[in-house]
Amino acid sequence: MNAVVLLGPPGAGKGTVAEVLVDKGYRHVSTGDLLREQIRLQTKLGLEAKKLMDQGQFVPDEVVVGMIRSLMESSDMSAKFLFDGFPRTQIQAEKLDELLQSFSGKIDDVVLLECPDEVIVERLSGRRTCTKCGAVYHIKYNPAERRDGCDMDGCELMQRPDDNEATIKNRLHVYAEQTAPLISYYTEQGLIHPVDATMSIGEVRSAVLEKLG
Ligand code: ADP
Ligand code: AMP
Predict the structure, then answer these.
(1) Domains and CATH numbers, the chain
(2) Mind listing the pLDDT tens digit for each residue in 21-40?
(3) How buried is 209 (Cβ within 10 angstroms: 0-12 exposed, 13-18 middle, 19+ buried)?
(4) Which of 48, 86, 118, 213 qualifies as a FRET site for 42, CA 20 to 30 Å off?
C-alpha cells in the first residue's frame, strides 16, 4: 500500500492535478472532500468540522487521521493512494508514516505545488465547484462550457463558503504555520519534487506526470 502526497497551499491546484493522476490508477483521497461529504450527510463529525472549515481552521488531527485509518483498513493492499490536502501537520505526517508501515507500505513521492499568495487568492476567489460531482472549474482559467452548469452532469456550480477573501487569508496563514514545515520533513527524506504551479493547468499536469514518471 504505497502513496504519493500532493503538498502545497490551498488553491495551488492539487485537486486539478489529481484528476489526471486518477487515470493513471491512483486512488485520489482528499480529506477536504471527505469532510464535505460528512457535512452533506449532516453527521456529528461533519457539523463540528463545518464550524472550523468555515473559519479556515484545521479539523483536529485525530479526526482526520481516523478517517484515513478507516479508509486504509477497508482498502485493497495493492492500492496506490494519492493524498490531497493530507497530511497538513507534523503529527498527521508522522501518523501517516506509521499507518503506511503497518500495511508494509510507504510514501514514494511528495509533489510540492509552489504558488505565491497573490495567485492563490485569484484562483480561490474564482473557483466554482459542481454541487453534485465536485468537478472543479475557474471562472477565468477553466470555465465550464455552459458557464453556470457542470460539463459532466449539468448540475449547478457553487462557490465554496470558505473561498471568500477573509477565510482565504486565514487559510494561507494556517498553511504557512502548520503545513509548510512539512516541506523540510519530506526534503530530509529525499521525497520532494517541486513543481512551478503558476504555469497553465496543462503544463502543471504534464510536469507532475513527468516527476512521477
Ligand atoms: P487545491 O485542490 O490545491 O485547493 P484546486 O485544484 O481546487 O486547488 O484549484 C483551485 C482553483 O484554481 C480552481 O478554480 C482551479 O480551476 C484553478 N486552477 C488550478 N490549477 C490552475 C492553473 N495551473 N492555472 C490556473 N488556474 C488553476
Ligand atoms: P481543502 O478542500 O483541502 O481546501 O480543505 C478544506 C478545509 O477542510 C480546510 O481548510 C480544513 O478546515 C479542512 N481540512 C481538510 N484537510 C484537512 C487536514 N488534513 N487536516 C485538518 N483539516 C483539514
Answers:
(1) 2-115+179-212 (3.40.50.300)
(2) 999 999 999 999 999 999 99
(3) middle
(4) 86
